[in-house]
Specification:
The protein is mainly β. The chain has one domain: Porin (Beta Barrel). The protein contains one helix and eleven strands. The chain is globular, with a radius of gyration of 18 Å.
């Protein structure tokens, strides 16, 4: 067994341990596909799709498709936009509703030495539900998401480890803006070829507003990415 294969299995065992030890926390599963292509100068277009299950993987949560565009401003800065259309199950009623969300973001990345990469991404999201589709309905959520991420590229291998911390800040909810949740992510990416990557991640969502949300959750996320 090669060295980088051992690293990969070791990281997967970490995920398994985290999943097994969390008590009274909902376990969720996310399965995703991402396709992207560079067009023009420093511009990327793509689409992501994801299927999610909750209640210990037993119940459909949501499914969405999300086109996106990202423009590199220089070697470190980039900006972009995303639009998400999804079908989501309401926890209280079980009804499936249609929802939309628009996102604008700015991202900064820098290399540290030769194997580490640090990045910060801040995004502004505006979401609309089927029941109140008016553009400026006060029930639509305006959210700021800010994420700090560190990646380690294991030298001489196709493996990348990552650690990220993200904060969700609700801006337009009464009685005042508040921190909705914090998300910690441990990730492992395996570059299958120059054009495809498999990502395996463990996420823990710490819900700050427990009166609205249904509790903390842990997620096993699998994603396959293709560059055309």
């Amino acid at each position: 067994m090669s060295t980088y294969t051992k690293y990969g299995w070791g990281w997967l065992l970490v995920f398994a341990g985290l999943l097994a030890q969390a008590q009274n926390v909902d376990s969720r599963l996310w399965l995703g596909l991402k396709v992207e292509k560079e067009v023009g100068k420093n511009t990327e277009l793509g689409v992501s799709t994801q299927y999610r299950r909750e209640a210990n993987w037993s119940t459909f949560d949501q499914a969405f498709i999300e086109p996106f565009v990202e423009q590199a401003l220089n070697d470190r800065w980039s900006a972009g936009a995303e639009y998400r259309f999804r079908f989501s199950r309401k926890a209280r009623t079980g009804h499936i509703v249609r929802e939309q969300r628009a996102t604008a973001f700015v991202q900064y990345k820098m290399d540290v030495w030769s194997d580490f990469e640090l990045g910060v991404k801040t995004a502004l999201q505006y979401g609309m539900e089927e029941a109140h589709q008016e553009l400026f309905d006060r029930r639509n959520e305006l959210t700021n998401r800010t994420k700090a991420k560190m990646e380690y590229h294991l030298f001489g291998t196709p493996i990348t480890f990552s650690l990220a911390e993200e904060m969700f800040y609700q801006l337009n909810q009464n009685p005042a803006p508040y921190v909705d949740k914090c998300r910690t992510t441990f990730g492992l990416a395996y570059e299958c070829s120059n054009s495809s990557t498999i990502d395996v991640s463990y996420l823990f969502d710490f819900e700050m507003n427990r009166t609205v949300k249904d509790g903390h959750s842990q997620v096993l996320a699998l994603k396959y990415s293709i560059k055309l």
